[in-house]
Amino acid sequence: MARVLVIEDNPVNLELMVFLLESQGHEVHAAMDGDRGVVLARELEPTLILCDVEMPCRDGYAVAAELKSDARLAGIPLVAVTAHAMVGDRDSALAVGFDAHFAKPIDPPAFLKAIESMLGAGHRAPAAPDAASAAGAAPGDVPDDCRAPLPGLMLLVVDDTPANLHYKCQLLEPAGYRTLAATSVAEARELLLATRVDLVLCDVLMPGGTGIDLLAAMRRDERSRAVPFILLTASTYNNLLRKQGLAMGAQRFLTHPIDAIDLLGEIRAVLQEAAALRSGGPA
Description:
- This protein is an alpha/beta fold and 283 residues long.
- The chain has helices spanning 11-23, 34-44, 60-68, 89-95, 108-119, 162-172, 185-194, 211-220, 239-247, 260-279, and strands spanning 3-7, 27-31, 48-51, 78-82, 100-103, 154-158, 178-182, 199-203, 229-233, 252-255.
């Protein structure tokens, strides 16, 4: 696996890149401004550096100039990950020292494919149902103890970040699940009224209502009261939210970045526990 430094001032974009890279087994370090990014680059000498262009303190162009002027760091691949995707932006990034240019919003499969290409075979993750391969994965690509315990199970995935939502659905479907996707609590509640689901996988902090709000609404409704519920939150761990979610009936409170196989294993375990409760047998 590789050591990757991500320099990005937008928390959502940073969270997504860290999530994707750590799901592939890479060691990821993060900086939220250019100055800190340069310091970490010198301390860590990473295998790869991903860097935003527009940032406080020192923008990506200044970061590139600084890193490429350092003989120890000049050979490290440096990738601009930026919303600047107009004609000429790529050439401008390459001219100041970036080795590649990747446009936002991030498409997880394309992003991971590009990262693998830059890292080379020696740093690639082992075969797993990751975002790069999930769309075309065969059933055998997912370990048996992580696949859906029964065919046809429907999972509702709730996340306000479209890229995160896309990634999770691409992970679940090759494992044998059907998926519904919602970007808000309101949208999730509408889907729950229209469709029977077997499990809800929900982000915690979202605008317009949290995962805790959705959980509370489901536990008040006889139709959805017994549906297993997994809360999945960012690496900024909040123990109060964890206690609140579990006390209200969530089966799991997980933090991401989380390994793809671990997440599939947790989902399978929760579904098996729910089936055992319904049958009155052991989990």
